[in-house]
Amino acid sequence: MTTSTPQPLDAQTIATLSTVSTATITTILLKKGLRSIWMKGPKPARAGLPRVVGRAFTLRFVPTREDVTTPASWSSPRSTRAAVESIPAGSIVVADAMGITSAGIFGDILCARMVHRGVTALITDGVVRDIAGVNGTGLPVWCQGTAAPASVAALTFVNWEETIGCGGVAVFPGDIIVADEDGAVLIPDAFLEEILHAGPAQEKLEAWIISEVGRGATLPGLYPPNAEAMARYEASQSKAL
């Protein structure tokens, strides 16, 4: 399948998406019929990670093959090392490890190199190793945990920038990724404008709903808001201007 190279996300798009939670994104896309956009498994590797936004740079692993997957393969032209040197700045690396958690796909050295290349984050349905060092690089990582063995103990790296599956989600190179404390979601390009328009509006509405709940308001008619609640919300926004 031939696809055009997606344009890098501009600063305003990144800033806007950084204000929209993954929970809100999943709700908006659910209303558009998209259910398979939240990656099952990847979680923040440490507390306090910021929400990240970027286009996906994909990596694909398959089960290990002992005759080809050896420490010597790390020097191959088709290796994780070569892939890292191809990642554009601002990308979010999304790695398909098939949910295998018995070997870490990356450690501190490769993550440090990603940071120097301007990578925004790493997301995988697998695990990482050298976790103290990985966290020390400052690279935001979403994964299923940690494992001491190197990737070749359970996985064979095969390619980059091709369609993958990560956490049950089909990810194409260049897809838009947003990740926060609730995990990682994918936004197809065709729905970007919808999220940019509806996302901030939904966040603002829900902040008002929370304030109403804090005042003792009951949920029926408030969440979701009926016509009377929306009128009160719109009036409150007019007063704030």
Give the SSE map.
Layout: H1 11-17, H2 22-31, E1 43-44, E2 52-63, H3 80-84, E3 92-96, H4 108-116, E4 121-124, H5 131-137, E5 141-143, E6 155-160, E7 164-166, E8 169-171, E9 176-180, E10 183-187, H6 192-214, H7 227-240
Parallel strand pairs: 2-3, 3-4, 4-5
Antiparallel strand pairs: 1-5, 2-6, 2-9, 7-8, 9-10
Description:
It is built from seven helices and ten strands. The longest helix is centred in the last third of the chain and has 23 residues, at 192-214. The chain is α/β, with parallel strands linked by helices. It folds into two domains: 38-187, Ribonuclease E inhibitor RraA/RraA-like (Glucose Oxidase, domain 1, 3-Layer(bba) Sandwich), CATH 3.50.30.40; 194-240, no CATH class.
> In terms of per-residue confidence, which ranges show pLDDT below 50 for 5 or more consecutive residues?
none
Tell me the structural class: alpha/beta
Which sheet architecture does the biggest sheet show? 8 strands, mixed
Q: Find the count of extended strands (DSSP E, 2+ residues).
A: 10
Helicity, as a percent range: 25-40%
Query: N- to C-terminal separation?
Result: 49 Å
CATH 2nd-level architecture of the largest domain: 3-Layer(bba) Sandwich
Would you list the SSEs in sequence order as H and E?
HHEEHEHEHEEEEEEHH
- Overall body shape: elongated
Number of helices: 7
CATH topology call of the largest domain: Glucose Oxidase, domain 1
CATH class of the largest domain: Alpha Beta
Q: What average pLDDT do the residues reach? A: 95
Strand coverage percent: 15-25%
Rg is 20 Å
Number of structural units classed as domains: 2
CATH-level-4 superfamily name of the largest domain: Ribonuclease E inhibitor RraA/RraA-like
